[in-house]
Design a protein that fits this description.
alpha/beta, 5 helices, 8 strands, single chain, five-stranded antiparallel β-sheet, three-stranded parallel β-sheet, elongated, about 170 residues, about 25% helix
Amino acid sequence: WEDLVARDFFVSSDANFVLRATRLAGISADRDSARLTLLGKPVTVRQVDPKDLSVQVEGPGRHFVWLPEEVLQTADGKRLPYRRHEAMAKYQGMWEKDIMLRFVQHMMEPLVVPLSSQTQLLSSMKEDIYRALVFCGPAVSSGFLEVAATHQLTSKAFHAADPEACPVQAQPGE
């Protein structure tokens, strides 16, 4: 991708596409007005960020702005052969090895782990920075599965079928 530096392109003239691609690339909306002034205009690539494959371009009037690579096109209107899913995987905006390792280990575990004791819960959560999700009851509900899937990247989910394994105990009279 470094071969893009100093090359001339045009920015797509589709404002919705440019803004949508910008958000998907993790680029903030702070300079969207500057991006929109470059729609359909010629630009020169000045830098490439290999982490998210965004490019800093210089437009008419020496306007500098970061854009996702996929909004660039050649003079004949062809888009670059790039798709956002080809960029390196990024977890929680981080690239550090320990965070990525924890992410991979987390994703290799079952969506909902059977919980046999409160000790197991404490042991499993010793290294985690996020809170656990625990369903206490005989059968996991579809709603809990949906919540577990939604928060799978950050929170471990457990199922305590045995009331003794549940970390929340009912108070007398409840």
